[in-house]
Amino acid sequence: MKAELIAYKCDDQIIDTQSATSTTLNPIYFDNSPDCLAVLRHSCAHLMAQAIKALYPEVKFFVGPVIEDGFYYDFRVNASLSEEDLPKIEEKMKEFAAQKLDITRYNIEKDEAVLKFKDDDLKQEVLLRIPQGKVGIYKQGEFEDLCRGPHIPNTGFLRFFKLTRIAGAYLGGDEKREMLTRIYGTAFADKESLKEHLRILEEAKKRDHRKLGTELKLFHFDEQIGGGLPLWLNAGARMRSKLEHILYKIHRLRGYEPVRGPELLKADVWKLSGHYTNYKENMYFTRIDEVEYGIKPMNCVGHIKIYQSEVRSYRDLPIKYFEYGVVHRHEKSGVLHGLFRVREFTQDDAHIFCTQTQIKPLVLEILDFVGSLMRAFGFEYEMEISTKPEKAIGSDEIWENATKALKEALDEQGLKYGIDEGGGAFYGPKIDIKITDALRRKWQCGTIQVDFNLPERFELEYTTSENTKARPVMLHRAILGSFERFVGILTEHCAGEFPFFIAPTQVGIVPIAEAHLNYAKEIHKELLNLGVDSEIYDKNESLSKKIRNAEKQKLPMIVVLGDEEVAKKTVALRDRRAKEQKNLSLKEFLEFIREKLNEVHF
């Protein structure tokens, strides 16, 4: 929905909107496009800071950037703020918005800014991050702050916003520094978009995998064990096991060989790989017999050493290794978030060693693998090629060749993709697989990486058809990303109502009385023989309560057993997904279950 026209000069200085017809201007329409929302939300962050300053005059501000779905501001305030304070801040924001205060910019030298904010330690922290030269300051009413901009012309354009939550945030993301207050918010160009976004936020709260994980008894976190280290409970472990068995079979059918690398490797090998220089801050280290070891953050080095365990020929290539590799990464406590950000996780990891001519067909084969899995779980997805980051190993030529190989593979098939400049791994460019869930949120899961660097560093070789030595290419590949993150995403996508083939408990068996318990156990055993998990609800409770308890666990199916079912060897079936009830013989029921298991094709 287009509202007002906002226009900017090339130096981002805001011009009055009445001048928008000028040919010297680069117009940006005031709608919900990414560029416009970035400007709108950045301006709304300043409006929030202005309101906080008016309510708490002693406040000091750090930074207030735009993020994917809104904005936030970090600040220090001599008050204990909570969610209950957000409406008060919103009201003050509305007051300043109604005043239609002009938002203006002026530039000063950095040295002058240091003097101007000499009594503000947080502004000094910001200035440390700004190079020498001119710095921008944006002003509206009595409020001003360091900022690159751009911003909208005046506060009157800010009408559709909402403060969403309050949290703590370490200064500069450093857990050794002080904890600041952070308030999140969002803004849109129109009322309907804001309303829909808030509806999604409310739905997301209901679907929060941490809440559902507790209710469905999937996993648990215990601070005595440590943050970011999930405990998988019975139901969650069953679901993980199903994932592992499904993926194991598919990998084998696609020509992958299972391997297993150690979780602890000498630091020297991490130095050779480049992890020690480029990734050390994310790793855990220990010493054994005065020798430094690193706990693996990735599985690639172990797979490289397996490749090197014997002489390889061109006839052997491609060699495909896969492993459910447990890895550990040093995450700051402030960023830990349920299963989405943990310190220990298991990757559905694979590494393929191949020739350069095999890159394209192998990348396309992996994408076919991705497509079949995503369809089975009900996810749409898109792709993005991530290019060379600042911290990287290898020459520009190697990076260009690797990036070109990925682009050519996708272009050849007419596949659409975006570009994430500087988003690659330190050892190679990659295709990132971003899935879209039921709430239209995007999640980065799988990845395909082309790596010429590690084979070079480890001097990997194979014998060519001319009996000479050549260097293989290494493809790093994960589809789900990690079991932990994927289970979290799937839980929220399904709102805990998992597809039958992956549900931790697929059938709830409800015997009406103790006389029906032996028949329930018989069915339970038959289902186990089919690879189906069931639970018998045999507590001394009323039938309605037993059924209610089973329904609370969001089980795909419930069977009720009474005198008639025992006598006739039948079941009274309640199918949650189909929303229907029917009576089947035991034989018909077991055949129905087999058909349900075979509905999904990978």
Give an overview in words.
- This protein is 34% helix and 27% strand.
- It has 602 residues and is an alpha+beta fold.
- The strands form 8 sheets. The protein has an 8-stranded mixed beta sheet with strand order 14-18-19-26-23-22-20-21, with helices on both faces.
- β16 and β17 (291-295) form a beta hairpin.
Characteristics:
602 residues, globular, alpha+beta
Q: Residue ranges: pLDDT <50 for 5 or more in a row?
A: 1-28
Helicity range of the residues? 25-40%
- In whole angstroms, how far apart are the ends? 41 Å
Radius of gyration: 29 Å
- Output the strand order for the largest sheet: 14-18-19-26-23-22-20-21
Largest sheet: 8 strands, mixed
Mean pLDDT across the residues is 91
Helical element count? 18
Class by alpha and beta content: alpha+beta
Looking at the chains present, what oligomeric state does this protein adopt? single chain
Report the principal-axis shape: globular
Strand content: 25-35%
DSSP strand count: 31
